[in-house]
Design goal:
Radius of gyration: 20 Å
CATH superfamily of the largest domain: Bordetella uptake gene, domain 1
CATH architecture of the largest domain: 3-Layer(aba) Sandwich
CATH topology of the largest domain: D-Maltodextrin-Binding Protein, domain 2
Number of domains: 2
Oligomer: single chain
Largest sheet: 11 strands, mixed
Order of helices and strands: HEHEHEEHEHEHEHEEEHHEH
Helix content: 25-40%
Number of helices: 10
Length: 328
């Protein structure tokens, strides 16, 4: 079969949704000409207090001005299982444009390798847009004896390095496993945390040795002086005096990013998908959001629904490349 003849399952489902719109078969309540006409729920895939929460709150503030009808957009935290709980609720919500949220990518695609595989069919979801992208980093407590990766490797030769994580299905879990495998570090992941903030608090208290998160997330906590960033997954982190993917001889780590996509229930009608995608991309390009991102140390990286679907396919290929380190 030629490339032109092939179509992904997600593409088929989206095409089916568009066809249904063309025949007037919109879901009950999904009327594009009056959308939106009530409060929109914007899901945070954890308990709040971290970078996903910050994104959702900032975009909820600016998004209404780019919708055809101005309505309130309310952040709704749904913690649990590294974002799987949020994904499950989004999957089962009505496809009317009033309930959507952010998911952690690529991590959410690793949930199928966990002890409790996700109940969500990610290929059925409607990928609406992408809002941001950040490189990853690793942090330890301010009092930790670990000053660099060489120190970590020495300690790992005597005992496992413990990492806090929000669990299987999270990008921090995926990045921790790839980091440890790439550098031959004996490790143990401690899960059960409901968001990035609790995982960093665990490091600050000395409950675990380290944690891996996006640099934007770690830098926020590092400003308090409770944790220290000692490693960047990027070739050039911009943070003086720390190791990076090139200096430790693991350049493939620079392929790991925290993406910030927005996803809606399956079969979201094309007219509403277009409205939401355009509104989110326009919001990302506003000066107020750009100023916030610069102050927060995050990188705005807007993609419309076409671009985010291409990104998702690339991230699924990345997961497949590292699937050997994901099985418990």
């Amino acid at each position: 079969m030629s490339n032109k003849q092939q179509i992904s399952r997600r593409g088929f489902l989206q095409a089916s949704s568009i066809a249904a719109v063309g025949t007037g078969l919109l879901p009950r309540g999904a009327k594009a000409d009056t959308f939106p006409n009530k409060t929109i729920s914007f899901v945070v895939p954890d308990s709040g207090g971290g970078s996903f929460d910050a994104y959702v709150r900032k975009f909820s503030e600016y998004l209404p001005q780019f919708l055809p009808h101005k309505v309130n957009v309310e952040p709704v935290p749904i913690p649990g299982a590294g974002g799987q709980a949020a994904a499950f609720q989004i999957q089962n919500a009505p496809p009317d444009g009033y309930f959507f949220g952010m998911l952690n990518v690529p991590g959410i695609f690793t949930s199928k390798f966990g002890k409790k595989p996700s109940k969500t069919d990610l290929d059925r979801l409607t990928w609406v847009a992408n809002l941001g992208r950040e490189g990853y980093g690793l942090a330890v407590s301010k009092d930790s004896p670990i000053q660099n990766i060489a120190d970590m490797q020495k300690i790992a030769a005597t005992r496992p390095i413990t990492f806090s994580s929000t669990g299987s299905g999270s990008t921090d879990n995926f990045a921790t496993r790839v980091f440890s495998a790439s550098l031959g570090i004996n490790f143990r992941i401690v899960t059960g945390y409901t968001g990035s903030a609790p995982t960093m608090v665990a490091v600050a208290r000395g409950d675990v040795d380290a944690t891996v998160h996006s640099l934007a997330t770690l830098q926020g906590m590092a400003k308090t002086g409770l944790i220290r960033i000692i490693f960047s997954f990027q070739p050039n982190s911009g943070i003086a005096g720390i190791d990076d993917a090139i200096s430790v001889g693991a350049p493939t780590l620079s392929e790991i990013y925290q993406w910030r996509p927005v996803v809606a229930p399956p079969n979201l009608p094309q007219p509403i998908l277009q409205i939401l995608s355009d509104a989110l991309v326009n919001t990302a390009n506003t000066q107020g959001v750009k100023d916030w991102a610069q102050a927060a140390g995050t990188s705005i990286f807007p993609l419309d629904y076409r671009g985010v679907n291409k990104m998702i396919d690339q991230q699924k290929a990345l997961i497949d490349q590292w699937k050997s380190v994901l099985k418990d």
